[in-house]
């Protein structure tokens, strides 16, 4: 999470379209959207997890190369909403952003949330306790990946993450001038792996 705090404002309506998701259902997608939006907020510059399409990255990743984490995602999302209902009277996505931040800070601190209750059948023994603390750590790591990965993996939409840190993306090479200390890398046109693949095809035509 960052220190950007919009006070007690309610979370904005999400722009995700779970109908096209491969793994998460609509409820799970809304919860993840709310989580990732607090881990990498949009304010104050409009460059956050929502703009980068991080939930799409998570869905593709968990449906594919992170499929071994499907159980902890499914159970973790269920337990998070159970915990929020017991403690704050609403599911995570329905809480104010300030309350969401409080919940995530508690998970980050590793507090005992084992009383939230959920069916953990099918999870490995060492991945259950404390399930929510571990779940949050995984989501945070994957949010960062989705924010700054190459767009070919489903995240970093419109190069939002790379623009945020001034990274020019996938380049074939850098000029001598561009390699000098102090050079402004934001002046280099941003390229993705797809751009490089297209340019390679054109070069061979």
Automatic annotation (TrEMBL):
Any Pfam family matching the protein: Gluconate_2-dh3
Highest taxon in the source lineage: Bacteria
Keywords: Plasmid
Name listed for the protein in its UniProt record: Gluconate 2-dehydrogenase gamma chain
């Amino acid at each position: 999470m960052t220190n950007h705090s919009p006070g007690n404002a309610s979370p904005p309506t999400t722009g995700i379209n779970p109908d096209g998701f491969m793994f998460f259902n609509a409820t799970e997608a809304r919860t993840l959207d709310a989580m990732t939006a607090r881990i990498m907020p949009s304010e104050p510059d409009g460059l956050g997890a929502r703009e980068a399409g991080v939930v799409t990255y998570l869905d593709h990743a968990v449906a594919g190369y992170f499929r071994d984490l499907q159980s902890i995602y499914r159970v973790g999302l269920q337990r998070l909403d159970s915990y929020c209902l017991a403690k704050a009277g609403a599911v995570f996505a329905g809480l104010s952003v300030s309350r969401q931040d409080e919940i995530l800070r508690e998970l980050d601190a590793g507090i005992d949330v084992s009383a939230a209750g959920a069916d953990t059948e099918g999870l490995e023994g060492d991945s259950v306790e404390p399930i929510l603390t571990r779940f949050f750590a995984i989501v945070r790591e994957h949010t960062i990946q989705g924010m700054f990965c190459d767009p070919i993996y489903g995240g970093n939409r419109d190069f939002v993450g790379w623009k945020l840190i001034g990274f020019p993306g996938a380049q074939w090479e850098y000029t001598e001038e561009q390699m000098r200390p102090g050079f402004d890398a934001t002046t280099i046109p941003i390229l993705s792996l797809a751009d490089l693949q297209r340019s390679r095809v054109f070069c061979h035509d």
